[in-house]
Amino acid sequence: MNRVFVTYLFNHHYFVNQPEQITEAQAETRLSLAKLFNIRISSGAELLQPVMIRTASELIGIDVPRPFYLSFPESVRKLTIPELLIDQLLHYYNTYGQDNFNEAGHSVFEEEIERKVFDEKTPVKDFAVLTEAEAIEELKEYTEALLSGSRPLSAAQYELVLTFIREYAFIPESIVSKNTAMRLLIDSRDTDLADFLMLSDVPKLADELNYRSTGNKDPDKLNLKNQDRKLLTAVINRLIAKGKIDTRTCYEKKARWSGLLHHIHYKTSDPKGRDFLNAMRGNENRSFMSEFEETFAEKGAVAAADILLRRKGSGALLRNLDYLLSRCNSDDEIRNVIGMIDTNNNIILLQLLLHYYSEQNPLRTFRFIKYNKMRKHTETPEESKSRKTNLANRDRKTASSAIQDILEKNLKGKLGKVYIDPLMKNIALPLQEGSSQGGFGTLTKGSRIPLPEGKKLRAFTYWEKVNDIDLSVFGLDKNQKQTEFSWRNMASNQSEAITFSGDQTSGFDGGSEYFEIDLEEFKKQHPVIRYLIFCNNIYTNGVTFDQCVCRAGYMFRDIEDSGEIFEPKTVNSSYTINCASRFAYLFGLDLTTNEFVWLNVANENGSRIAASDNMSFLTQYFEMTKIFNVYDFFTLMAGEVVDDPKNADIAVTDEKIETGESTEIIRSYDIEKIIALLNKG
Known about the structure:
Helices cover 38% and strands 17% of the residues. By secondary structure, it is of the alpha+beta class. Among the domains are: 313-411, no CATH class; 417-426 and 629-680, no CATH class; 443-617, sav2460 like domains (Lipoxygenase-1, Sandwich), CATH 2.60.60.30. It has a 6-stranded antiparallel beta sheet. It has a 6-stranded antiparallel beta sheet with strand order 8-18-17-14-10-11.
C-alpha cells in the first residue's frame, strides 16, 4: 500500500496488514510495539506484521540524531557561561568559518551523565490493525469527508486526497472548497474537475499556476509555461460550454482577465465565449460597485448587502461584512445583514463567531492563507487612524449573538444519543487547517492538552539534508511584549526552568535541537510571561522545509527522568514539517493554565532569525476553545446527551471505554468525521 496511506492511517492509530509483507511473529511484534512505544493493539492482533515496528519507528521516532550536548539537559546546567560560549564559538568556527559541515559537532567541555533505567509512566497508545480492504474503505471515507469541507486542506489532508484519487481512480461527486478543486485540477490536469469552479475563478487558477511555475507572487506578471496555457484554455472552454459564465463577477477583475486572455492567446468560436471576450476586452465595465455604493447611501446597509449578495454571491458578502456591519444603525440591521450570509456553511459561521467574539485590538492583524502558507499584516498606527471600518465592541457582541442563534438552529438535534467526554472542551474544531502540517499526535489549531502533574515538556526538532534548523522559544506577557529564548541568548539563560540543547549547525546528515521547560520553575523565574511559543526556522540560505527532511514534536517527561534525551514511549506528537517556507510556528504553552496549545502554522516569513517576527497575533489560538469547542459542537448536535457511553449512538472521547455494539466512536484526531458533520449540519 502507498506510503501516504500507511502514514495517514498510522496518524489515526491504525496499522495496515499488507499482503505483500511477511505475516508472522505476531506475538513478538505485539511485544516490541508495547516495549518500544507503549502501543497496545486493541483489535486485529492476528494481522500484525514485523514491518509495523519500522513504521512506528519512522513516524514516532527512534533513531534520532544526537544534539550538540550529548548529555542534555543535566550536562548543560553544569557548564559555566564562558564554557557554553566557547563551545559554540568553536563549533561556529569549524562550520561557518571553515565551511566544514561534514560531521556533527559536540561540546568540548561537557561530562557524560550516567543514565538511569527508564521507568517513567507514559499513557498507552491504542492502535487497531486493518486489512487492506478495510483500510481502503476507511481512506475513501476520509477523502469524501475532506472534499465536503469548504475550507482549504492541510498539507497531509491534501496529499491523501490527491493520492487516493490517483491510486484508485476515484471520481469526486462533490468538491466544496474551490481552493481544493483548483489544486487537484493543477496536479491531475483533469479538466473534468473544472466543473466545480466558475469562470470568475480562472484568474486565481492562473495565479496558482504562475506561482508554481516561477515562484512569482504578482498575479499581474504572468509567465506561464505552454502546458499551463493549454490547461487554462481547456478550462475556459469547458466552463463556457457548461454555461458557468458569471460575467458580472468577472468585471471586478477585468484588467486581470484582459491580461490573462492576451497571455494565453485565447480564441473561441463559441458564441457565448465571444460575448464573454468582448465584455472583457471592451471599454464597458458593468461593475456592480457603483450600484452598491449608491444603494448604501440611499437605502442603508441591509439593501446594500442584498445587492452584494445577488450580484457577487456570499463570498463577496463575507469579504465586506465588517464594512457593512460598521455602518448598521441598529441591532436589528446587524442581525438582518448576518442573516443574509450562507447559513448552511457552519464552518464559515464558526469562523465568524471567533472573529466577532473577542474585542478588537487597537492595531488589527490581518491573516489569510495563500499558497498554503499564512500571510499576515499588522496595521501601523497611521493605517489604524485612516481605516474605513471601525466596528464597535457592542456591535461585535450583537453580531456574535446573531451567529450563535443561527448555529443553534442549524445544528440542534441533528444526531441521536451522544456521550461526550468533558475533556473534549479542550479540543478545537477544524476551522483553519490550511497552513497545517500533519503527523502523529497532531490536533487542530487551538486545541489544549493539560500538562500532567509531575511532568515537564521537552520540545524537539531533528533534520537531514540541510545544515542548520533552529528551534526557538518566545515568551509573551499580557502586553504582548516578546522575550526571546534561542541560540543567540541561551548561554546566559540556561537553568532548571528552561534548558537548550545547543545550536547544532552541522546536521546535513542529521542534526537535532531540544528545549526543556519545567513550568513551575519557569513561572518562578519569569513571572510576567504568560505564553510560550515554539517555532522552527531554517537558517541555511535558499532552503525551505519541503527541500529537506524535518520533524518536530514534544514529549512529556518526568521531572526526574531517565536521562535519555529522546525516549519514544514519551513522545506525544511527532510530525513532518514540509511546507514551502523557511518558518513554522509549532505549539505553545499557556502558563496561566499549565496547558500545551496547538499552533501548527506554516508562515510565509522568510527570515533566517525567528526574533524578527511579531508573534502577538498567535494569542488568538490560545482563546479558541474558550469560545467554541468540540464539546459545545456535539452538545448542540445531540438529540440527547447521555452519561453512559453504552447507551450512546455516538461517543466522543479519546479514552478506552465500553460502548454499545453499534456505537460510533469519534476521537479528537478524527478530524475528517468532524468536518463531515460540520458540513452535514
